[in-house]
């Protein structure tokens, strides 16, 4: 399967208006960068059949922007993509889904996404990649192989779109 890990776009800062981290929504810049980066995926023929996201507002909104771009009617909330989730819990969730889709997109946070990519590629928890806001990584992944097989195909940050 192709697994796309997408970090949420730029979000509002905590303020008098937004006092709770989980309620921080995307900024206009965050929506625009997400749209632009999603278009890159679309241009690469990497259109997912399934989008799962952290339940935090900024990730939900990122997933919704991408779902609209890709023509997907539903995004799935996944607590295993919350910022404090472990890479093992995220991997266990992914494996338990018995996904038949060729392309799956997960929307989440740092440092979890970088840790997840690093762990998938090396089997260790030392972080070797950094996911920028609205950036994505594409892995070619066989979660059922023993041992698991993975290859990093693409790692793209939002600076490619200016």
Fold blueprint:
Layout: E1 2-7, H1 28-43, E2 50-53, H2 57-70, E3 76-77, H3 87-96, E4 103-108, H4 112-122, E5 136-142, E6 149-156
Parallel strand pairs: 1-4, 2-3, 2-4
Antiparallel strand pairs: 1-5, 5-6
Helix pairs in contact: 1-2, 3-4
Keywords summarizing the entry:
globular, 162 residues, Rossmann fold, six-stranded mixed sheet, alpha/beta, single chain
Biggest beta sheet attributes: 6 strands, mixed
Q: Which regions have little confidence, pLDDT < 50, spanning 5+ residues?
A: none
Could you spell the SSE succession in H and E letters?
A: EHEHEHEHEE
CATH fold-type name: Rossmann fold
Strand order of the largest sheet: 3-2-4-1-5-6
Discrete helix count? 4
CATH class descriptor:
Alpha Beta
Shape: globular
For the terminal residues, how far apart are their CA atoms? 30 Å
Tally of extended strands? 6
CATH architecture: 3-Layer(aba) Sandwich
CATH evolutionary superfamily: Phosphoglycerate mutase-like
- The rounded Rg comes to 15 Å
Total number of domains: 1
Q: Give the mean pLDDT.
A: 93
Strand content: 15-25%
What share of residues is helical?
25-40%
Helix/strand structural class: alpha/beta
Description of the molecule:
By secondary structure, the chain is α/β, with parallel strands linked by helices. It has a single domain (2-161), classed as Phosphoglycerate mutase-like (Rossmann fold, 3-Layer(aba) Sandwich), CATH 3.40.50.1240. Helices cover 31% and strands 20% of the residues. It has helices at 28-43, 57-70, 87-96, 112-122; strands at residues 2-7, 50-53, 76-77, 103-108, 136-142, 149-156. Strands 3-2-4-1-5-6 form a 6-stranded mixed β-sheet, with helices on both faces. Strand 5 and strand 6 form a beta hairpin. Helix 1 (28-43) packs across helix 2 (57-70). The mean pLDDT is 93.
